[in-house]
């Protein structure tokens, strides 16, 4: 399941729907509106096997690695959020749910940095193909 933070730009969510990328959004389909950041991690534990997309830098923390979910910090302009969600989900390294679990990822224009559960240090990979 793909889950968007409640602050994910509405126009970008519409683009994801147009591209037929399935997702739920916090405050609409999942949890209540105004859920606080500290309550999101326990929510992800309840949902299991979720990929959470946010533009909140606080989720780009390697200590948040857990086998039950993937966190993706979209370190891009709000107008580029949907594009980077799509690029991330199509990237061969992250294209399956199984490949994403246990990761905390920073997605930015120059590529992807990620931490993986039970692995020391940051890993890096480039974007693949076109936008």
Can you give me a brief rundown of this structure?
This protein has 131 residues and is an alpha/beta fold.
What does the model show?
The protein has 131 residues and is α/β, with parallel strands linked by helices. The protein has 4 helices and 7 strands; from the N terminus they run E-H-E-H-E-E-H-H-E-E-E. It has helices at 10-18, 37-47, 81-90, 97-100, and strands spanning 2-4, 24-25, 50-54, 69-74, 103-108, 111-116, 123-125. The protein has one domain: Rossmann fold (3-Layer(aba) Sandwich), CATH 3.40.50. 26% of the residues lie in helices and 24% in strands. Helix 1 links the parallel strand 1 (2-4) and strand 2. The protein has a 7-stranded mixed β-sheet with strand order 2-1-3-4-5-6-7, with helices on both faces. The longest helix has 11 residues, at 37-47.
Write the layout of secondary structure elements.
Elements: E1 2-4, H1 10-18, E2 24-25, H2 37-47, E3 50-54, E4 69-74, H3 81-90, H4 97-100, E5 103-108, E6 111-116, E7 123-125
Parallel strand pairs: 1-2, 1-3, 3-4, 4-5
Antiparallel strand pairs: 5-6, 6-7
Task: Name some characteristics of this structure.
Rossmann fold, alpha/beta, 131 residues, seven-stranded mixed sheet, 4 helices, 24% strand, 7 strands
The third-level CATH topology is Rossmann fold
Instruction: Report, as a whole number of angstroms, the end-to-end distance.
Output: 22 Å
The radius of gyration over CA amounts to 14 Å
Assembly type of the shown chains? Answer: single chain
Return the CATH architecture.
3-Layer(aba) Sandwich
Overall geometry comes to: globular
